[in-house]
Amino acid sequence: MQVVEVQTTTPPPPTPNVDGKEGYWMNIDDSDSPNKFIQYVDEASKQDQIIAHTRYSTRQLNLNFGQKVMDVGCGAGKDLSRLESMVESQGQVFGMDISREMVECAKSRMSHLPNVTVFCGDAASIPIENNYFDAIRCERLLQHVPSPDQVISEMVRVTKSGGRIVVTDVDWSSTTISIPKSIEKINRIILNEVIFNAHPTIGIQLKGRMKKNPQIENIELFAQCLYTDSLNMADEFLWLGERGKMAVSQGLISEEEYNLWRETIEQMEEEGSFVFTMNIFTVSGSKK
């Protein structure tokens, strides 16, 4: 099978052009510093809770020696070597991402594995023939794309009958932080009303969206609560501070309200009472 690489131009962001990392994930190649996205993914992937969830999701692929698997939205290739170790040298691993910067990085990292192919393409129109893969996955991709159902349909199309489809994503609306009553309203606006990606509640919707596809059966759901008591961790990897700044830029709260909110949670961090939680979901199934 020969991969037909799609010569795409990166589409515009599916959400308003806001001052946060999340709004630019579909437009990485046009950003001032594509490397910051690669560095972010690398650092986030080192977190124990993300590692544990990714291990679960890749096990759900039920891969065996010699099989063919694809990672859609593979980014800089953080999971490709793990997939290769599961199918071994006689198997085939494909990674696809819409960002050429990500793809070039992944190619470089996987250059020592001849059975790993990385290419640029659009998840809504995967340039692979029908019924090719034994398993396919995507992780934290659907929150960014214009049409998640179309991506799921494409993943199903290129998977063999009996093959596995595994999708992981977060529910940003599930975010909670420990806060006093005095800033509850400001906090609610920051966590629930800021626009920063196309589908912030996609995680909780995954099972329903997979159920809607008539070609997927044996659907299983796994949920995990991500948590940290470090404000720095919440800022760096879960974009808490960015969401507060975006609330100001989107006119949802005033600068004074933001400062009050920020000072309060920084004080909680000093006192040791800060807690952040958010839910992540993996939904898996088999193609009929």
From TrEMBL:
Name of the protein this chain belongs to: Methyltransferase domain-containing protein
SUPFAM superfamilies referenced in this protein's UniProt entry, alphabetically: S-adenosyl-L-methionine-dependent methyltransferases
Region called Disordered, residue ranges: 1-20
Residue span(s) of domain Methyltransferase: 66-184
Top-level taxon in the UniProt lineage: Eukaryota
Source species of the chain: Polysphondylium violaceum
InterPro entries noted in UniProt: Erg6_SMT_methyltransf, Methyltranfer_dom, SAM-dependent_MTases_sf
Membrane-crossing segments per the record: none
Gene3D superfamilies: Vaccinia Virus protein VP39
